[in-house]
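If you are new to this repository, start here. Below is one unmodified record pulled from the training split, so you can see the exact layout before writing a loader.
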Amino acid sequence: MIHPSTKEKMHPRNRFRGGYDFASLVAVSPKLGAWVRANPHGDASIDYAEPAAVLALNQALLRQAYGIATWDLPPGALCPPIPGRSDYVHHLADLLARGGDTIPRGPRLRILDVGVGASCIYPLIGASEYGWSFVGSEIDPGALAWARGLADANRRGESMIECRLQKDRSSCFRGVILQGESYDASMCNPPFHASAADAASGSDRKRRNLGLSKSSTPSRNFGGQAGELWCPGGELGFVLRMITESVEVRDQVRWFTSLVSKSAHLPRLESAAREAGALEVTTLEMGQGQKRSRVLAWTFARNTRASAKRERSRG
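And here is the target side for that same chain:
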């Protein structure tokens, strides 16, 4: 459920700021109706501990807000919270618009999604909301094939979504950004945990918060594979590696960005970006209900405001 205070914290352009209208959601996606019940306050809601209900809600939200009619997940894949993923896209749009009067739109805007996942969620939202083009990288061939299927089924105008296999599990940009390519920004939802055990413990906490026993079968609303949930060094290690590697493609990406779930990681990450030679480092604050998150952004480009104006004038 979207917390009542969410609309005060979500991005102003987020289509979910006002909460969920379950009647209209069921109207556009009738199968959601099987999961809608009155909560203890008498309001329409779903059981967020039930993976099939969460999946049905996501499908309804994507269909209603973005006209995305075909969306599903393979068993075990990470099921993304749609409002939060939308917020990242909107904040990225604001970052790209800095120094200008209009939000940049259209397929000439090119975004790299590091770790696109089976859900392909950032490219689908970005293409639907702003008409951007995307390249999504993925280390899991199965997830990559699923993302390609979703991209093909939901093509929008001239915007393109291309999915590329990242063959080196330790790399972020090498082997994905090709010679001569340029991107307006990169984005990433990095693995949070440092090990499978840490990820399992986190899922147990989520299940307990929803009133489920520790022995309950893990459900897809907290799903996720190794590359989605954990990696050596966890979130901090991943983003530090991304910062180090960004130096190699500093002239091909205007803004590098990544979600940072743990605020305690920010000081070290910001320092690392500056030490790597970034000319500007900024943090974009986001919030959905009681959850707070942020996007770390850094650039090696000089005068990004002027370059944004030039790109819009060319369009």
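Two things worth knowing about this chain: The radius of gyration is 19 Å. The longest helix spans residues 51-66.
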